[in-house]
Amino acid sequence: MINKITSLALVLLTVSSLLHAQPRISPDGVKLDRTLQMINGLYVDDVETSKLAETAIRAMLRELDPHSSYLNKEEVKAMNEPLQGNFDGIGISFNMLTDTLYVMEVIAGGPSQKVGILPGDKIIYVNDSLIAGVNMNNQDVVSMLRGPKGTTVNVRILRRGTPELLDFKIVRDKIPIYSIDATYMVNKNTGYIRLSRFGITSTEEFLKAEKELKAQGMKNLILDLTGNGGGILQTASDIADEFLGAGKLVVYTEGKNQPRYELNTTSKGNFETGNLVVLVDEGSASASEIVAGAIQDWDRGIVVGRRTFGKGLVQRQLPLPDGTMMRLTVARYYTPTGRSIQKPYEEGNIEAYNRDFFNRMEHGEMLHADSIHFPDSLKYTTLLNKRTVYGGGGIMPDYFVPIDTNTVTDLHRNLIARGVINRLTIAEVDNNRASLLKSYPTVERFKSDYQIPESMINRMKELASEEKMEWKDDEFEKSRQFMSVQLKALMARDLYDTSAYFVIINDEIDIFKEGLRIINNTKVYNDLLKGIGSNVN
């Protein structure tokens, strides 16, 4: 008993010593502290030394690498919310159009749905403050609607067909942030899951979506990671675990002051057989690249699309005493074959790093796979089929799909940028919601039968004129097909849910179309797994 007490005392003493130990300040640290003291004591005007310290920290971290950064309290909160999987609010998604808040979606079971708020409602007042027609930005509105769970917010709403404003008292609650944008069966054998981030709840969401699709007959899966900027390392490993056998390396990290740390598959996954295609593009980064790299290295599926972003640096979040935070790069991560996929960077030159997308365009990489040249030192061999894969700057897909430059014109881009496309679809649904849902009770029916009316095109031209945009008929005709599908998809999102948007728009997305072609052609799929028939050299 005495030995146990003695051991416990030693443990507590050790912990206490670690918690209260003060690191010795280096000469450079003394220099920085002395500089702040002299500025505070001698400078001609009053200064906020906290702001100076923040500026100095940001400048120091910029000299290290593109992903080490300093975050103030507001930035810490904004960074954590999407990964934590929830926030306190009223449970709507909205658009600010012509200075009016338009409710796009009411989250099922959330506070707004409970009191009867509907898609299409316009919020005019929040707690007696007029928010319509006063040129408020999204962040201002969010700060008024969000608040601690259990608190109340009063809103006055304008609803089509109701002459008077409607008053609602909403009790704020925890609102889930979902990682999965879409889940549906593309055909009788092929399921589709689009994952937008790797957060705390992503694995649970993925397992649920996977189970639903398997119940509908899914034999093959398209996992869409295009535009997915990453998230939590462990979540990426857990999702990769669904596709790989037990005991397989998913990723490892290592740094000068960080020993090698491995993440391996731990159990039998629910989709270890069946064709698997992973869709990626230049916006797929970090955790997305971990999943795609593991699938590729273990020859488990086919990666389709364009070279990914190339973020292979691991950041540790280090809280500072005042509630701010430093995100410091402490290691690099490596795929199972040992590939580092971090793209090159010059220390302190973040601007050049951020121009990588434009550099890829200028070099022709977005259009032609053979414009990308890897030195032999960056060539690796997959673990089962011994195919050649590449490191040193993102995950190079097994099958390259060029960016589409034929359908998107300056006219189309300007219509999107000026909000014309959004305003047009929202107004069309707002004016005809009941009749549209009566005529097209399901997404499938809407997709097969609904056609964009000519009246919407005429209204588009009117809105473009109001925005003083130059209308070019040749550009319109070039973009018309894709634009019509986009209008239809946006209307479907407003009428049904976010999955409905992808059910319709994916038919026009080249990466998706190539992925679907490959996954449903057994010979093409197996040839690519063997390294035959790839258009990547």
Structure description:
By secondary structure, the protein is α+β, with helices and mostly antiparallel strands. The chain has 19 helices and 21 strands. The protein has helices spanning 2-20, 27-42, 49-62, 73-84, 111-115, 138-145, 202-215, 233-241, 287-297, 350-354, 356-362, 410-417, 420-439, 443-449, 454-466, 473-495, 498-505, 510-519, 522-529, and strands spanning 69-71, 86-89, 92-97, 100-106, 122-126, 129-130, 152-158, 166-171, 173-176, 180-185, 190-195, 220-224, 249-255, 258-264, 276-280, 302-305, 313-319, 325-334, 379-381, 388-390, 399-400. Helix 8 (233-241) packs parallel to helix 9 (287-297). It starts with a helix and ends in an 8-residue tail after the last helix.
Radius of gyration: 27 Å
Main sheet characteristics: 6 strands, antiparallel
How many separate helices?
Answer: 19
**Spans with pLDDT under 50 lasting ≥5 residues?**
1-21
Overall mean pLDDT stands at 87
Shape: globular
Query: Percentage of helical residues?
Result: 40-55%
Q: Could you give the count of β-strands?
A: 21
Distance between the termini: 69 Å
Strand share of the residues?
A: 15-25%
Structural class: alpha+beta
Features:
537 residues; alpha+beta; six-stranded antiparallel beta sheet; 21 strands; disordered N terminus
Short summary of the structure?
This protein has 537 residues and is α+β, with helices and mostly antiparallel strands. The protein is 40% helix and 20% strand.
